[in-house]
Amino acid sequence: MPGFELFGAEERKEVNDVLETGILMRYGFDGPRKGIWKAKELEQAISSKLNVPYTQLTSSGTTALTTALAALGVGAGDEVIMPTFTFVASFESIFSVGATPVLVDVDDTLTLDPRAVEAAITPRTRVVMPVHMCGAMADLDALKAICDQHNLILLEDACQSFGASYKGRALGTIGHAGAFSFDFVKTITCAEGGAVVTHDKDLYIKCDAYSDHGHDHLGADRGADQHPFMGYNFRISELHAAVGLAQIRKLDTFLAIQRKTKKIMKDALSAIPEVSFRRLPDPDGDSATFLGFFLPEEGQARAAAAAMKAAGLAAFYWYDNNWHYIRNWEHFRQSATLNHFAPGLQQAMELYRIRQFPVSDAIINRCVCTPINLGWSEQEVQEKAGKLVKAVKSVL
Ligand SMILES: *Cc1c(COP(=O)(O)O)cnc(C)c1O
Q1: Residue boundaries of the structural domains of the chain
Q2: Which atom of ligand 1 lies at the shortest distance from residue 63's CA?
Q3: Residue 160 contacts by C-beta under 8 Å, 6 or more apart in sequence?
Q4: Which terminus of the chain is more exposed, N or C, with fewer CB under 10 A?
Q5: According to the model, what pLDDT value does residue 113 have?
Q6: Phi and psi angles of residue 368, each rounded to the nearest 5 degrees, phi first
Q7: What counts of helices (H) and strands (E) characterise the chain?
Q8: CATH class entry, domain 252-393
Q9: pLDDT per residue over 328-348, tens digit each?
């Protein structure tokens, strides 16, 4: 990761196809676009790559989650279970439909702890939203069993895990719906973009309309479209979709590079007895965008990340990070919004002003992740593996 590292002639060609016609919008203008439909083509490519019947592109991963939640009928008073370790888009999308985020601990998979999910279920729970962080999967069998038992919706945030799978099925295609991001630093990029995937045709039709002002897209004349319900403009442009089309054709190459490189780095680090690794419910399905590991103590993990950075390696110590872990989401904790929450939601948010998450803390404060890049030569990979081992050993 990320796909932008291998940007080139293929992306330029696809973008040029669009520039030749000048039709930058994904809908309409059937004549002048001369058969160029990049967004439609990318939707088909995603469906066929992930083996899922329906894909709706959107303007971002955040709007993909929002679109999925709205299409699933989630709104005011509904609780959505989400992990403490994720990206801020998780709660942003939940707030955007007026629903209530319920934060739940993660385990050593760095994703939702199924037992903690079960404990958080209330009569208002509608959705369980696992986030497949850093390229790999949550324990989907356990989460799906809980959802089935309690009649809940499983919505997969697979924004960081395009191309990863669980027991042979693509992440994002196992729940009622899945969301992907193609922002600039994701596995494949459109510059900005996202997608909702689903097996449910009715849900797809709702996503299609919701992400384009409620247009039903049934007629040949956009101006004469009916609007069965209200929507927003979460459309992707043809230029963005064109970039994604070139990128998805390279996905298998990206995954092969990442898996090979990660194995070398992980094997090297395995020689250190104090190191344990992120648990992967299906190691074969890992997209291998990151190598995540634990050290015995918080201080060692923080020091290891610093030593790695000093040695020129990228290192994420999520416990101190402002975007990915509840500890530093001060704006979330304080409900710092520009407008007012509905009264019920405001009340539900009060608990986060003081709520602590010691179980998640004890996982995340010992965790270090290093990204696996696409552009490294074999020699660089060996050098980096050596530096990684040296940096980690230096703090033990
Ligand atoms: C990137 C990301 C998103 C949001 O995607 P954008 O395209 O940046 O809006 C949502 N969830 C997770 C876990 C992400 O990493």
Answers
A1: 3-250, 252-393
A2: 9
A3: 87, 131, 132, 133, 134, 135, 181, 186, 187, 289
A4: C
A5: 98
A6: -130, 140
A7: 14, 12
A8: alpha beta
A9: 999 999 999 999 999 999 999
